[in-house]
């Protein structure tokens, strides 16, 4: 796809999301000057698995690029492993151990969610908790959001006690190793699969981005900064003092 530099400047977020799927050729006065594309890892599961010790080395090389593998290979890798993995669009991502700042924000935020949803049909859950999402039947993705709010738990439990539905609200807390994946790749995935609301929490900037999702797109957004009160689009009355979760 070819797009002018002026169009890119005016709608950078839109084309950044599209670049996760296709290359965007940027032009100026009709001349091609750059290409916006997703960063990829050149290793595959089958190549790495043939060499002892290569699995973890490949998985920890980069922050954004995943590790190409089939869904069957992902299941084989994660079945008896103590490591945590996500599988998005045919790539495996190793989840690193979270740092104190990440866990502090997670604890504060989940505490508010737990109290607010207590006694209601919808229930909040915290990672590790596998969520399986499909853009289409053959496109299977498995993610572990930091927090998710589930409103159809009883209807979507399978006979192995795994939840197989789509959370209404998902929260991801950014870290250096997940920032690009959470802000771009997961946003695109959640839009495509029917998640209604997505919160992106940045402990570094001390900001929270709230996106209302509908029909495969962002229908509304808000950014909350120091001193402000975060408000959910979907859950009326769900409000959180931003300074509380970053204290």
Which structural traits does this protein have?
247 residues; alpha+beta; 3 domains; six-stranded mixed β-sheet; three-stranded mixed β-sheet; 8 helices; 28% helix
Largest sheet features: 6 strands, mixed
CATH topology of the largest domain: tt1808, chain A
CATH architecture descriptor name of the largest domain: Alpha-Beta Complex
Task: Give me the side-by-side strand order of the main sheet.
Answer: 7-10-11-12-13-14
* CATH fourth-tier homologous superfamily of the largest domain: tt1808, chain A
Instruction: Please state the overall shape, judged from the principal axes of the Cα atoms.
Output: globular
The assigned structural class equals alpha+beta
User: Which stretches of 5+ consecutive residues score pLDDT under 50?
Assistant: 51-64
Count of DSSP H/I helices: 8
Order of helices and strands: EHHEEHHEHEEHEEEEEHEEEEEH
Kindly give the count of domains: 3
Mean pLDDT: 85
Q: What does the model show?
A:
Helix content is 28%, strand content 30%. It is an alpha+beta fold and 247 residues long. It has 3 domains: 2-36; 45-95, no CATH class; 100-245, tt1808, chain A (Alpha-Beta Complex), CATH 3.90.1570. A 6-stranded mixed beta sheet has the order 7-10-11-12-13-14, sandwiched between helices. Strands 1-2-3 form a 3-stranded mixed beta sheet. The model is unreliable at 51-64 (pLDDT under 50).
């Amino acid at each position: 796809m070819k797009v002018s530099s002026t169009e890119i400047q005016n709608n950078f977020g839109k084309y950044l999301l599209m670049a996760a799927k296709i290359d965007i050729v940027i032009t100026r006065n009709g001349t091609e000057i750059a290409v916006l594309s997703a960063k990829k890892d050149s290793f595959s599961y089958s190549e790495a698995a043939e060499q002892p010790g290569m699995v973890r080395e490949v998985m920890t090389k980069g922050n954004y690029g995943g590790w190409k593998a089939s869904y069957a290979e992902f299941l084989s890798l994660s079945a008896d492993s103590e490591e945590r993995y996500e599988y998005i669009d045919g790539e495996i991502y190793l989840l690193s151990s979270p740092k104190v700042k990440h866990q502090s924000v997670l604890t504060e935020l989940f505490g508010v969610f737990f109290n607010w949803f207590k006694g209601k049909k919808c229930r909040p859950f915290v990672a590790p908790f596998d969520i399986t999402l499909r853009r289409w039947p053959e496109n299977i993705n498995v993610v572990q959001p930091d927090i998710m709010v589930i409103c159809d738990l009883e209807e979507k439990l399978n006979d192995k006690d795994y939840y197989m539905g789509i959370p209404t609200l998902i929260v991801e807390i950014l870290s250096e190793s997940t920032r690009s994946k959470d802000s771009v790749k997961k946003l695109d995935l959640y839009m495509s699969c029917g998640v209604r609301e997505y919160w992106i929490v940045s402990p570094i900037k001390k900001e929270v981005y709230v996106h209302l999702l509908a029909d495969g797109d962002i229908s509304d957004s808000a950014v909350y900064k120091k001193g402000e009160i975060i408000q959910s689009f979907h859950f009326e009355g769900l409000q959180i003092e931003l300074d509380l979760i970053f204290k």
